[in-house]
Amino acid sequence: MKIKNICCIGAGYVGGPTMSVLAQKNPDIKITVVDINQDRINSWNDENLNDLPIYEPGLKEIVNEARDRNLFFHTDVEKAIDEADMIFISVNTPTKTYGKGKGMAADLKYVELCARQIAKVAKSDKIVVEKSTLPVRTAQAIKNILDNTGSGVKFQILSNPEFLAEGTAIQDLLHPDRVLIGGEESPEGKEAIDALVEIYATWIPKEKILTTNVWSSELSKLVANAFLAQRVSSINAISELCEVTGADVNEVSRAIGMDSRIGPKFLKSSVGFGGSCFQKDILNLVYIAKTYGLHEVADYWEQVIIMNDHQKRRFADNIVSTLYNTVSGKKITFLGWAFKKDTNDTRESAAIYVADALMNEQAEITVYDPKVSEERIYEDLDYLGTRSPEENRKLLKVVKEPYEACNESHAIAILTEWDEFKEYDWQKIYDSVIKPAFIFDGRKLLNPKEIKEIGFEYYAIGS
């Protein structure tokens, strides 16, 4: 089966970059990315490539090459579905905020809406690919909807989870550790799997393309993120032990990371992990385990989240206690709001929760982030519902220049590991802040020796 026309429903952090790379590597396939958000589609079509809705190193160059050649962005979802041989579902699957499974289970309403729209529109056989992160056995629910249309159209459901890290998404797409494709164990399922394999095989060696049944593929995505997040929470737990014993978490990480059985990745202690995947996927795993009565399994994985929340709380508490047990009316500078460097994504960023805790203590926060907009920062705070939007704007302001952010500050907190922060004139910053001058390095980004020699009181996670 040769695929000539692909539709992707969802132009977000996964759909946009993934389809851009697929289009670049498969110029003979027409790829259309559709989204009901007109503003987002307008941004993808913007002539100024610096105004794309997602910031990822290398993305604008790929979009520039493929856009309007075989890569298109628009809002006509039904037309794209009708014309496609293969449809990727790449919509948001947030944690439920209501009803059964509230706070843990994945909310599949957008996925179901996609399936029903495909069922309504499709007039020819389609391959439907789950790209969104989904709980195990979601494919069966999608298939039930699609197979009960009465139209006689046949559908094959594939699971093709993404394993992208924001900030390195393009490199992860161009040079993946593996591509995972799960499908039905039938001749038709095998044919559908092979069709998707051939698309990826235009640039990825076939030995890196793994094929499984659908359920294994769906579960593998949740488990991969759970294992990675577990490592972060594990080293963060050790960072607290380091602080009270005189050990240095960087030295501990280096020592254990050289053990080939453990390895060095995801052993960097910080103020806590964020992003759209880790917390959501672990909570999903916890909910699945509880659904099947596996309470010890659920408790085990839930502890990873508990540890991450604790790390954010104690970072905020340390700022308050160090500043003589009060931050009321004091200016605290936040360098960074994104959950990690090289992305403008702020979902579950530690900065949101640290800011919220300090604002509860009446701190006056000034934020500088090189890629995150003022509008996004206020949306993040308003979503928490801790205080009114007016109070949030009174206690927190956003500036576009780092030295302005630091001027006359009582303390500087580094919340994102942007490389540019290392290059600042820290002597100039020291001269502009209120003394004693405090830096709380939530990413262990700066050189402690140099910073202390300038005159700062320097506090870092895990030392």
Automatic annotation (TrEMBL):
The active site is at 277 (nucleophile). It holds the Pfam family UDPG_MGDP_dh_C. One of its GO terms (molecular function) is UDP-glucose 6-dehydrogenase activity. GO terms for biological process: glycosaminoglycan biosynthetic process; UDP-glucuronate biosynthetic process. SUPFAM superfamilies: 6-phosphogluconate dehydrogenase C-terminal domain-like (SSF48179), NAD(P)-binding Rossmann-fold domains (SSF51735), UDP-glucose/GDP-mannose dehydrogenase C-terminal domain (SSF52413). NAD(+) binds at residues 10-15, 35, 40, 91-95, 132-133, 166, 277-280, 347. Substrate binds at residues 162-166, 221-225, 261, 268-274, 339-340, 443. It comes from the Bacteria. It catalyses: UDP-alpha-D-glucose + 2 NAD(+) + H2O = UDP-alpha-D-glucuronate + 2 NADH + 3 H(+). Residues 333-448 form the UDP-glucose/GDP-mannose dehydrogenase C-terminal domain. Pathway: Nucleotide-sugar biosynthesis; UDP-alpha-D-glucuronate biosynthesis; UDP-alpha-D-glucuronate from UDP-alpha-D-glucose: step 1/1. Its EC number is 1.1.1.22. Keywords: NAD, Oxidoreductase. Belongs to the UDP-glucose/GDP-mannose dehydrogenase family. Catalyzes the conversion of UDP-glucose into UDP-glucuronate, one of the precursors of teichuronic acid. NCBIfam families: NDP-sugDHase. This is UDP-glucose 6-dehydrogenase.
